Amino acid sequence: MLYNLPNILTISRIVVIPVMFLAIYIHSVLWSILAGVLFVLASITDYLDGYFARSRNQNSVLGRLLDPIADKLLVISALVIIVANHLVTPLTYIPVIIIMCREVLVSGLREFLAEFNVGMPVTRLAKWKTGFQMTAISMILLQHLPLIGAPVGVLGEWLLWVAGILTFITGYQYFEKCLDYIYTVENKKKNPVKKVEQEVKKIAVRVKKSVEKAVEKKAATSRRGRKTQTTEAAMPKKTAAKSAVKNSRRRKRNAPKTAAVKKETVPAKETPAAKTTVPEKTEA
Description:
Blueprint: H1 5-21, H2 29-55, H3 61-84, H4 93-114, H5 124-141, H6 150-186, H7 192-265
Helix pairs in contact: 1-2, 1-3, 2-3, 2-5, 3-4, 3-5, 4-6, 5-6
């Protein structure tokens, strides 16, 4: 449904803006207090519409469209009322201008990145900025209440300065993200600062890998050294056993040949017939 409770609360923030704006032309304490009360109620609906949308599962495209628009219209209108009615000192116009410029800047960045389907999520610091901003504007608008008095308006000015500083920081963060996208996509290169960071990370990874390889190589060398020492220690016993086996096999192979050689070299015995007789001499 388009007209569910979260969307009605969002639209109510836009509806109260013209009523608040009449405080610029109707210079009365009562109307100034009415403008402050309406701003406080509208700020509360900024929290309630998101709460009901999540709890009732009533998220809609219209709500996502109107919610940031209603917030920006409400804040800028309240700041214009504050400046027009001279509710703050001229020096406090500085955070007022910073907040207005930041709202325009972020809106332009979101519109630019939406063409490329790139989102810009809200950071935690931006939520803190919104809290300080709403509280400061509420205090400044309600400073004419009899029970509150001017000290609350002074405190609201200090909180507005805090909101202005946080606004500048968050605006710079969003702008940096947009620049990073431009360097990456449009110019086919990344932001120089990011590029240097990535190069440093690559060098660190290479150094880490080389150190790990050196440690592994040293460990493997030590393991091979211990294995070699163990092998050398076991070598004499194995060599002696192998040589004994070889000698026994060699003796077995050479035994028949030795016996045959001995038979061939034995000399033949002389027979009596072989003896020669010498004839005796006869006397004449």
